[in-house]
């Protein structure tokens, strides 16, 4: 009937009837190879409406058609869609419209996002990336119904690109004034995602590139932020209004699939694998690893050993009831300024096969985890954006100046650090992402430098609930002796001299400097293991080695835990808890992975013990009793201090039973018998006032609330 828009299934640049032979070939191919899939589409339609053709099958059937499909996808896709819709499928709905995609295309069509250039426009390519943004599903006009305001006839116009196209003129009356009739237009589900290059593709300080992917029909809602995917699609130019000759690009997806395999491109060559196995069997492999972590920083061997084990990581477990136990190791470096923390973080991020480095005030909670927000990428709708911990899932997030991140923003880390997931609930969007990421963080003391007489944790501007999620915490202090000063200064001078000699040699201004002299000078900062080989070593171990505790290792860890707990019980303190036990297991697993061993030995367990004890020595030790006290991580105070606070508070309450306030001297008289000094009492009273337990109506007078 005139004025109605007929359902349009296919739009050719050429009429299919002009190439009957090619159409019959396409139909024959589908009948031979894809009748089962067509029957399945008919059964599930419209939830499923896309037939994915395997390139290899098509090439076996007719290699010329297969190659032409990649070069001229618009024509050949529509050819196969026409053929598919011509086939009588038993049980198919009358209005069925089958779409066609393609997969398993030749590796020559695989393109890095950074290498996508104008030569690929209009051709089929394959890209791999990590999803960083996902929009809502939106309706998109496929065929716009334009009503001529003069004669009332409706003209259908196929839509391509981002700008809505009108007819040039009415074919009935020649006028050019039209109105869009939404209810008579044809729509499809539409979603945009943005993917970025996998982090392990990057080297040094390279920035990851990204590209928009347009999804339609049954390809929508197939991906989530942080997921690694392969996209087969056609490179398009975004047609926008304006006169600029520079156009944005996007990929119209024909097929999308999730990729489970991590670090695929870091697969070692046979020669590299031989070197890796040789390193793994070297009795001095742990010393070599330590010498390969930030060699420009002198000392801190235990810290470097811990970072090396963090790179290799523990084993993720999924229990029969669905409970997940993380394998990632979290480490916090607490240090005086200028002690090399940032350099160690940056170096670790370069060594990790997959990593992000972020710092301080530049980081928001959403930037660390994930967020839902309105964005022009979402065409005015909601966009779910993945943060650092989601994008680096399976790798390392190096977070410098951790204490400078706003406390409210840090709250987002609770779930990510322990459950290894990130939940988002905003504007009706409720979702959860995978964030299996190791965190290596660095922080400075509140007041510039550490006070020897106070617990370390109380001097850090980080909430105890976040601190207790770190497996290891190391205190990196400024050196104290003249000998240490000389060693460090000498190392710095040698490091700079090596750099100066290299620069002179490369610029050709150091005529008296030979390559051998430069290499000799660089030995002081040359890592024991080549960084590129170490990256592949770590990737190989993480994907191929899954060690199990031996009876000897199990007994070593069990005895250590039980004995330490019993020692604390005798003194009415808790020196260690289940979280530290799990940290021990993760460290022992990482130690076994270094050797590419599927068995965790007693030596691995002993190495884990030493690192944990070294970490606890300064962080969990009560300066007054000399004992380990896990309460520091949960309250920010040692048990002895908590007891003194209670004593002072009870004393104030007792004194104010017969008077309005308790004077400072009166309180001091009562508590001094318990060894509390005047200076200590002043600090305890300040703490009670700050906590709101006590108020001070007059100077030197106190009352309990």
State the CATH class of the domain at 270-295 and 336-464.
Alpha Beta
> What is the CATH homology-level superfamily of the domain at 270-295 and 336-464?
P-loop containing nucleotide triphosphate hydrolases
Percent range for β-strand residues: 15-25%
CATH architecture label name of the domain at 270-295 and 336-464: 3-Layer(aba) Sandwich
Could you name the CATH topology of the domain at 270-295 and 336-464?
A: Rossmann fold
Description of the structure:
The structure is a single chain. The protein has 705 residues and is of the alpha/beta class. Among the domains are: 16-104, mini-chromosome maintenance (MCM) complex, chain A, domain 1 (2-Layer Sandwich); 113-259, Nucleic acid-binding proteins (OB fold (Dihydrolipoamide Acetyltransferase, E2P), Beta Barrel); 270-295 and 336-464, 3-Layer(aba) Sandwich (Rossmann fold); 638-704, Arc Repressor Mutant, subunit A, CATH 1.10.10.10. Helices cover 37% and strands 21% of the residues. A five-stranded mixed β-barrel has the order 3-7-8-10-9. The chain has a five-stranded parallel sheet with strand order 14-17-20-13-21. The longest helix is centred in the last third of the chain and has 26 residues, at 482-507.
Short description:
The protein is α/β, with parallel strands linked by helices.
């Amino acid at each position: 009937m005139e004025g109605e828009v007929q359902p349009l299934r296919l739009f050719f640049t050429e009429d299919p009837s002009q190439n009957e032979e090619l159409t019959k070939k396409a139909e024959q191919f589908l009948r031979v190879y894809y009748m089962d899939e067509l029957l399945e589409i008919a059964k599930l339609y419209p939830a499923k409406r896309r037939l994915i053709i395997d390139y290899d099958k098509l090439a076996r059937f007719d290699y010329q058609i297969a190659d032409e499909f990649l070069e001229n996808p618009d024509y050949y896709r529509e050819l196969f869609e026409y053929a598919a819709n011509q086939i009588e499928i038993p049980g198919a709905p009358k209005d069925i419209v089958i779409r066609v995609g393609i997969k398993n295309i030749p590796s020559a069509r695989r393109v890095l996002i950074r290498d996508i250039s104008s030569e690929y426009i209009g051709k089929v390519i394959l890209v791999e990336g990590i999803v960083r943004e996902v929009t809502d599903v939106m309706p998109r006009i496929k065929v716009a119904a334009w009503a001529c305001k003069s004669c009332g006839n409706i003209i259908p116009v196929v839509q391509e690109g981002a700008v809505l196209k009108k007819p040039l003129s009415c074919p009935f009356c020649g006028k050019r004034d039209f109105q869009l009739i939404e209810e008579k237009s044809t729509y499809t589900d539409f979603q945009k995602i943005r993917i970025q290059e996998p982090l392990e593709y990057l080297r040094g300080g390279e920035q990851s590139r990204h590209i928009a992917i347009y999804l339609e029909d049954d390809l929508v809602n197939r991906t989530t932020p942080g997921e690694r995917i392969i996209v087969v699609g056609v490179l398009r130019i975004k047609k926008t209004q304006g006169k600029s000759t520079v156009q944005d690009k996007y990929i119209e997806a024909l097929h999308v699939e999730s990729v489970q395999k991590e670090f695929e491109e870091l697969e070692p060559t046979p020669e590299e694998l031989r070197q890796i196995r040789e390193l793994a069997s070297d009795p001095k492999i742990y010393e070599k690893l330590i010498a390969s972590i930030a060699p420009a920083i002198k000392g801190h061997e235990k810290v470097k050993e811990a970072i090396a084990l963090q790179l290799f990581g523990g084993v993720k477990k999924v229990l029969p009831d669905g409970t997940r136990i993380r394998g990632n190791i979290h480490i916090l470096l607490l240090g005086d300024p200028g002690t090399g923390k940032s350099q160690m973080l940056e170096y670790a991020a370069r060594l990790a096969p997959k990593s992000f480095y972020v710092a301080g005030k530049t980081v928001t909670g959403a930037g660390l985890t994930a967020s839902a927000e309105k964005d022009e990428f979402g065409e005015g709708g909601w966009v779910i954006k993945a943060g650092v911990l989601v994008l680096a899932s399976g790798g390392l997030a190096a977070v410098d100046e951790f204490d400078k991140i706003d406390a409210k923003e840090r709250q987002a880390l609770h779930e990510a650090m322990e459950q290894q997931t990130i939940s988002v609930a905003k504007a009706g969007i409720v979702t959860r992402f995978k964030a299996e990421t190791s965190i290596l963080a660095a922080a400075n003391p509140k007041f510039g430098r550490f006070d020897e007489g106070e617990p370390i944790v109380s001097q850090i501007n980080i909430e105890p609930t976040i601190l207790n999620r770190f497996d290891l915490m190391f205190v990196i202090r400024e050196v104290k002796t003249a000998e240490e000063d000389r060693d460090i200064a000498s190392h710095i001078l040698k490091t700079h001299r090596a750099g100066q000699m290299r620069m002179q040699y490369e610029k050709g201004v150091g005529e008296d400097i030979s390559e051998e002299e430069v290499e000799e000078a660089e030995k002081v900062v040359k890592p024991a293991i080549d960084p590129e080989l170490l990256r592949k070593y770590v990737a190989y171990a993480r994907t191929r080695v899954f060690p199990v505790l031996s009876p000897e290792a199990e007994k070593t860890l069990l005895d250590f835990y039980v004995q330490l707990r019993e020692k604390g019980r005798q003194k009415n303190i808790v020196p260690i808890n289940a979280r530290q036990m799990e940290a021990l297991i993760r460290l022992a697993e990482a130690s076994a992975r270094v050797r590419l061993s599927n068995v965790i030995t007693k030596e691995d367990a002993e190495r884990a013990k030493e690192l944990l004890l070294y970490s606890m020595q300064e962080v969990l030790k009560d300066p007054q009793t000399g004992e380990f006290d896990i309460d520091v991580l949960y309250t920010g105070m040692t048990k002895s201090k908590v007891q003194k606070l209670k004593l002072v508070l009870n004393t104030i309450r007792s004194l104010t039973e017969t008077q309005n306030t308790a004077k400072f001297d009166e309180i001091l008289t009562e508590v001094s018998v318990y060894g509390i000094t005047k200076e200590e009492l002043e600090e305890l009273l300040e703490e009670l006032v700050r906590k709101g337990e006590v108020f001070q109506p007059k100077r030197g007078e106190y009352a309990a609330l």
